[in-house]
Structure formats: structure tokens, C-alpha cells
Amino acid sequence: MKSKWWLISLLVCLAVACLSPLASSSPDGLERVAEDKGFIDLAGEAPFQIIADYVFPGIGNEALATILAGLIGTLILFGMVYGLAWLLVLRKKELA
Amino acid sequence: MHIPDGFLNIATVATTCAVSAGGVGNAVRLANKKLGEKQVPLMGVLAAFIFAAQMLNFPIAGGTSGHLIGAALAAILLGPWAGVLIMSCVLIAQSLIFQDGGLLALGANIFNMGIVASFSGYYIYRLVTLLLGNGRRGTLVGGFVGAWGSVFLAAIVCAIELAVSGASPIGVVLPAMAGFHALIGIGEGLITVAVLSLVLATRADLLQLQRI
């Protein structure tokens, strides 16, 4: 089981993502400063939206939509960085 | 602290993009040279954790929230260049898929939360462990101070970019950003210490991996 520590860790990360509906919806530090100091209106719309603002589109229940966005993102990031790191290690072996 | 598009002017966008592209390129080059098989799953898990934890905004004073950046944690465990690599992937995914942080502002966001936060967090941590030793106490105190410093410095650099871009005068935006992020940094410090304690208790050997 020791070698599978990362699998357990990934499950913990997915559990953390499930807590996302409990997050504070107040503006974050930068948004707050932009509101207070009057430059929030400079912010432009994104040219396209996929899972905008961590809410999976087309799901009525917002908590569920947020959890789904969190789970997808967590898995994407794991796969993306694991894959990148694996490729870098693999390439090193080939070069050696 | 994800900057949306519109806050930064072209010159700042171009400069931060160029610096971040160079930084990420160097991170890839060094990782290619030094990364070992043992680090691969930890890289993936840290990226997953940082993404998930960044969704959990915690309230700070006066109707404002903050969330983990995670660069200091990644840099302490894997080294600052690995931190840059992990944070870049998180920020790219957040910008492209979740519309958090602008596309043009991606370079600035990678510079602030990737490069500045990873390096400041890592070297503050190293400084503290030099003074207190790298036992449990040094690791945890260094983790807290490094994490706090990483958020504070990233916020200051962010404020400078906003001021240079003409979004707000430096005398206004710098104290405001520094003030809120001095508080958010406490949350960053507590989460970083919690994860480091967990690693120390379960897989202390992960702290002995070669840093990149």
C-alpha cells in the first residue's frame, strides 16, 4: 500500500474539491481592492467560456455544478502535471 | 489574486509574458535534467491539491476572502523551479478552462503566483531552516513564514504591475494589496503548515527528495 500513497492523496484532493460549495463567495483580495479603488470595471469578458467561474454549465443545482467543476479540474491537473513530469523523466532516460 | 484581462496595459502584458515564458522554459529544461521517477506522482498530487484548495476561499476581514496560492508548498517540497512548473500548469488550466485569470494576463499571473511566489517562499523557508535547523520545528516555522512571505511579495508585485499599467496609483493600490494579502498570507501559512505536518507524519522521506 505504501507505493500507492499518491492514490490516497489524490482521493483526499478530490474530497477537498467536494468542499468547494462551502467556500466564501466574498470577493478575493485583488477583486476587493479593484472594487474599493474603482478599477474593477476595467475587467474584460473572457472571449470564450468553458467551465466559467468553477460552475459546470447546464446543471441547475449550483453546489453540484461547483463540485463537478472541482472534481474535473482536480483530475485534469493531476493528469496534466503527472503526464508532463512523466514525459520529462522519460525523455531524460532516452537521452542518457 | 488572478488578474483578469483589462487591468494591465500592453507593455506590462508583453514584459510579464516574456519573463514568464523564459522562466517556464528554464523550469522545463531543469526538470528534464533533474527530475526523477520518485517526484512524478508528487508533482501530480501537488497540482491536484493546489487546484482543489484554491477553490476553497476562506473569509478574512470585512467581506473579503482569500485562497491558497500553493507555490510555497510546492517549492518547499520539490524546489522552486518545480514550483514554477506546477503553478504554471494550474494557472494555464484555470485561465483556459475556468475563466479565472485573463488569457493576456496569464504571463503576469504566472510571474506573480508562479515565479515570485515559488522563489520567495522557497528561499524564505531555506533561510529559516538555516537558522532553526531542518528538523520538525524549522520545517514548520519555515513553511509558515515562507508561505506568508510568498503571498505578501506576490501581492506587492501584482500591485506594482497594476500601478505601472495605470489601473490605480501606486500609493493607493500598494498599501491596499499589501494589507489584504498580509491577512490572506496567514491562511496560506496555516494550510502550508498543515500539509507539511501531514507529510512529516506520514511520508517524511518526501522532504528528502532532490529539489529542482
Task: Based on the model shown, name its key terms.
heterodimer, A: 96 residues, mainly alpha, 0% strand, extended, B: 212 residues, Arp2/3 complex 21 kDa subunit ARPC3, two-stranded antiparallel ribbon, 7 helices, globular
What oligomerization state is this entry in?
Answer: heterodimer
Mean pLDDT of chain B: 97
Shape of chain A from CA axes? extended
Structural class of chain A: mainly alpha
List the secondary-structure elements of chain B in sequence, H or E. HHEEHHHHH
Query: What is the CATH T-level topology of chain B?
Result: Arp2/3 complex 21 kDa subunit ARPC3
Q: Average pLDDT across residues of chain A?
A: 92
Give the helix proportion of chain B (percent range): over 70%
Main beta sheet strand tally, sense and closure of chain A: none
Strand-residue proportion of chain B = under 5%
Give me the number of helical elements of chain B: 7
For the termini of chain A, the CA-CA separation is 31 Å
What's the alpha carbon Rg of chain B, rounded to whole Å? 16 Å
The domain tally of chain B reads 1
How large is the count of helical segments of chain A?
3
Q: What are the low-pLDDT stretches of chain A, counting only 5+ consecutive residues below 50?
A: none
Q: Gap between N and C termini of chain B, in Å?
A: 25 Å
Keywords (chain A): Cell membrane, Membrane, Transmembrane, Transmembrane helix
InterPro entries (chain A): PDGLE_dom
Organism (chain A): marine sediment metagenome
Domain PDGLE (chain A): 4-88
